[in-house]
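Regression check, farnesyl diphosphate case 288:
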Amino acid sequence: MVGWVSALPLMTRLLEALKPGDRDWVLAQQLDPQRLPAHIAIIMDGNGRWARSRDLPRVAGHQAGMESVREAVETCARMGIGALTLYAFSVENWKRPRAEVETLWRLLGVYLQRELPTIIEQNIQLSAMGRLEELPATVREELESAMAATATNTGMRLNVALNYGGRTELADAVNAILQEARASGSLETLKVDEDAIAARLYTAGLPDPDLLIRTSGEMRISNFLLWQIAYAELYVTDTLWPDFRRADLLSALLDFQKRDRRFGGLSPDVHPAETESPVALEALGSPR
Ligand code: FPP
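Current build output:
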């Protein structure tokens, strides 16, 4: 059975799950299946504010956020997105009250237990990234068992960032390079290039995210995927994470497909005449 899901054309499984004429179906129909991001990353923010606006404890916001996780994962998998990385717990999140941190671990366990059958059915391969060795033992065990159960799946990679920090990741990559060079006796001649760093990041083997979504309106990167988002398109929505539904995700993708991605080059709609006649440099004056 494994492999049949990803063999279907992109978007097919999503459209099959939607009702023709519904809002989500109309949005999905507008997407160009050939120009979907290979990798989407999401900063799931605003759970606390969602709860506060309802006079609920913060953990109720995290609990409600689980439904958004479920919907985003299933939608991306059904569209045929290659990888989805979710920022679930940062290295800085340990500063939160202990009860909130413990609830987050419990919710992750609940999510894995509840969603594993769907994750398997959707042919999703689960992975986690961050300093996982510092996670509570029970969380590590739950994760390892869920990852093992999905290890041979060939569809979307669902990558959960846990005890993750972009700077920590870069420091870990540099230390790995140093350690390998010491072990092979090549420290004296070591020369580090971009490929060497990328190959030792937690995301090694994954394409860089094409699209980074952040909910709740904050214009920050918050130490997420600092290296990998060099050329990602950023999409910030005021919607709080627990309110982020399939339509919000589809709208983000439609916005993404309108972007002109140049990666430092020129847009194809630049006319050759615009680049042909160089301005006489003398006319600009000499640099001071
Ligand atoms: C940020 O909102 C959210 C988090 C730190 C946790 C995200 C966790 C979940 C969505 C629950 C389960 C996750 C998985 C992967 C199953 P915030 O608390 O910083 O919100 P605020 O800025 O409004 O206070």
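Comparison notes: DSSP finds eleven helices and six strands in the chain. Residues 13 and 78 are 5 Å apart (CA to CA). No diff flagged against the previous build.
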